[in-house]
Fold this sequence. Notes:
The longest helix is centred in the first third of the chain and has 39 residues, at 2-40. This protein has ten helices and three strands. By secondary structure, the chain is mainly alpha-helical. The chain is elongated. It has a three-stranded mixed β-sheet. It has two domains: 2-208; 218-295, Alpha-Beta Plaits, CATH 3.30.70. The chain starts with a helix and ends in an 8-residue tail after the last helix.
Amino acid sequence: MSDHGHSHGAALADHRGKLAAVLGITLTVLVVEVVGAVLSGSLALLADAAHMLTDVAGLTLGADRCRPGAPTRHPPGPGLSPCRSPRCRCPGRSLAGRRRLRPDRGVKRLFEPPEVASGLMIVFGIVGLIGNLIGLLILASGRSANLNMRAAFLEVVNDALGSVAVLAAAAVITTTGWYRADAIASILIGVLIIPRTIRLLRETIDVLLESTPKGLDLELVRQHLHALPHVHDVHDLHASQVATGIPILTAHLVVDDTCFHDGHLGELLDQVQACIHTDFGIEHSTIQFESVDHAAHEHATHE
């Protein structure tokens, strides 16, 4: 049991380290592209920076996912919504801050395209692409480890596509002088942001409300646990995704009184956690064993 915990913890630490490294690279490229957008007048570079800002939120959530049992940033409660404090770092605020980076600016430029320094676009686009490629190399070895790492890898792939769009627009402007290419590229990049932004908002709401993970049937979990040897009853069964992407399950199991005297609880705990992991893919759980006599004194509202 302890070996599994240490090895799993080490794997999570390794994944979190990779995500943190890619997050640092993405933030650096984001700043560089904003500077490039100002110097070149390119809306495509600015849109790509906004795209990276979306993925910064995603990578930040990803790093949190690699902390088992990481606490939520706000206590759960009815009608909870992301706070509006200027010091708040919750993802919902970051997403809301991107409302100013709108695709309609690209539409306006289609009709009144300003001059754009395509040479600078190429320079900063290459910097962005190199940063994306480095991020992909860092994540490549761990992208099959879990859904979280795969999602992070795909986010960086999308960033790379944004940089490619910037470079393509710059090449068109350089060779043909058709400045509308910058606006078209910015619109395409803006469209790429929308699905990811919606997905992040949904994930943020689920985390803040500590929702039961989608696709997890708690009644089925209860049945599987109840079917284990020596288990009389299962109550106070709850599952949440306090750390996004890593379901956490808690349960009280009423077991034979003899289990507390014959040293059988350790083996039973192994069986319970193996059942939860094998049948439902849940690696993190907190199990409380109770004797039959104790169950009779439990509060009536316990289920």
